[in-house]
Hints:
Number of domains: 3
Shape: globular
Distance between the termini: 32 Å
CATH class of the largest domain: Mainly Alpha
Strand order of the largest sheet: 1-2-6-5-4-3
Radius of gyration: 18 Å
Order of helices and strands: EEHEEEEHHHHHEEHHHHHHH
Number of helices: 13
CATH topology of the largest domain: Endonuclease III, domain 1
CATH superfamily of the largest domain: Hypothetical protein, domain 2
Amino acid sequence: MHYIMTNNQIEIIDALDFDPVKIFECGQCFRWNADGEGVYTGVFRGHAAKVFHDGDRICIRASEGTAPEELVDYFDLDRNYEEIRRSVAIDSHMRSASDFGKGIRILRQDPWEALCSFIVSQCNNIPRIKKIIESLCLMFGEPICFEGRTLHTFPSADTLAGLSSRELEPIRCGYRAEYIIGAARAVSCGALDLGALARSGYDEALRALKTLNGVGDKVANCVILFGLNMLGAFPIDVWMKKTLAKHYGDGFSPSVFGEYAGVAQQYMFFYARFGEK
DNA sequence: AAACAGGCCTAAA
DNA sequence: TTTAGGCCTGTT
């Protein structure tokens, strides 16, 4: 992937394996929204940005003071997804899935945001998940001005740790409010050190995350994959359960996909959800 | 109107 | 170790 970094912006020259629609709509993130023709605006790690096509190139323009290196990191631009697609295309189904999902990248999201977001996602649908997260940010995040609009950052664990579940009621997240506050308090007081988990192994991360009330295997694996950037994590939700049963029967193990099983999962999920028949 | 939605927890076998 | 029912809320 070749790109040019300037001030707070990146221009991707050969935008192979970079499809904004797939990246933002494949279900890994909740804070990027399409506004207008192929333009996405979002907030990540305290910065606002927009992503758009500029001729053959893709341009990522972030808010004032965002280092381009931050964009390289968040969009994982130095990783070779073509190679990953080859490595997970182990059979005809995965060849179709990885071909259909070509252009997806796993964003390196803030671990706390990923934890909180995937707690909200449980037993819920995407429009409602997005609505809940937006009101959470509107109420408790910091405002950022970006291109004439006021957006809001994701509130810190410290901020949410000081709230009662009653104060969270306006965001209408139901029983998940207590889970959110419990997680916020664990992170805030240091009982759960997400930074340390990012440097630990998968097993330790899974164990630690599951000590939180409201975090089971599925949510924990989403946090590990999307927030800790361990690309072997393999979240299994209802869609994955169905498609795994269909194509692999029982006795399936994610290890057949190797170290990038999590990327395979994302291709398979996206294909089952939007592509297959 | 009743079921369902990108799980998790608890209680009970 | 596996299974059933309940959980907030909004939508169909």
